[in-house]
Specification:
It is a single chain. This protein is an alpha/beta fold. The chain has eight helices and seven strands, in the order βαβαβαβαβαααβαβ. The chain has one domain (about 5-215). About 45% of the residues lie in helices and about 15% in strands. The protein is globular. It comes from Chaetoceros tenuissimus. This is Shikimate kinase.
Length: about 220
């Protein structure tokens, strides 16, 4: 099977001119989800069709992948299955090498046609609103402190240092792509979001008004 050619979006002009033509779709879930990914994907796709019909979404859909390595179950498998069911291509966002040197190397590139770096999305946020990244960062910090306090009370260790990195990747990606496209859909792959998961940081974008409730599709 011939693999699609991946176009690396090297500057903000390419990002804006290319992705503004699409409606970005992000699927949020857990790497350790052991359910049948095709069963989960089928339910997500049905929810998406209803959501897009209600919102009258007319742009072609592109699924945004955030560097998860392929596994038999979990969010990477679910994401693949959703893209297959919708018959859509994907855009890959990975962390810059100075943040995580292995993130790009391990990423699943199945059906990826565009690829870009986290730092480019940060640039988009800076160009939109000067202090938006600092607001995101501070709100993520506040959430981590809150969660760590809860964990200490139940005898659990603090969240690992990498939580902030991946929470910011999640929230910066959604917010920047909504700026570029003017619209976005975020679909959850479970209705039981774990309190201490990276997924739980979806509340940050909502609290800051960068993502709206109508952008979200519950499982």
């Amino acid at each position: 099977m011939k693999l699609p050619t991946i176009t690396v979006l090297r500057d903000l002009f390419m990002i804006r001119s290319t992705l503004s033509e699409f409606h970005p779709l992000l699927i949020e879930g857990h790497t350790r989800d052991d359910r049948d990914p095709h069963h989960v994907a089928n339910r997500i796709v049905n929810n998406l069709h209803r959501h897009w019909k209600e919102r009258n979404i007319t742009k072609p859909i592109i699924l945004i992948s955030q560097g998860d390595p392929l596994t038999k179950t979990g969010i990477s498998a679910i994401t693949r299955a959703v893209a297959d069911e919708l018959n859509i291509k994907r855009c890959l966002i990975t962390l810059d090498e100075d943040i995580d040197p292995n993130h790009s190397n391990l990423a699943d590139r199945h059906d990826v046609i565009y690829e870009m770096k986290y730092s480019q999305l940060v640039e988009i946020l800076h160009g939109h609103e000067q202090n938006v990244l600092s607001k995101l960062s501070q709100t993520v910090d506040d959430k981590i402190l809150y969660k760590n306090d809860k964990r200490s009370k139940i005898g659990k260790q603090e969240l690992a240092n990498w939580y902030k990195t991946y929470a910011l990747l999640q929230e910066v990606t959604k917010s920047a792509l909504k700026i570029v496209s003017g619209e976005v859909t975020i679909a959850h792959a479970t209705d039981e979001i774990q309190e201490f998961s990276v997924t739980s940081f979806y509340e940050v974008g909502l609290e800051l008004g960068l993502i709206k409730k109508y952008d979200m599709v519950q499982y």
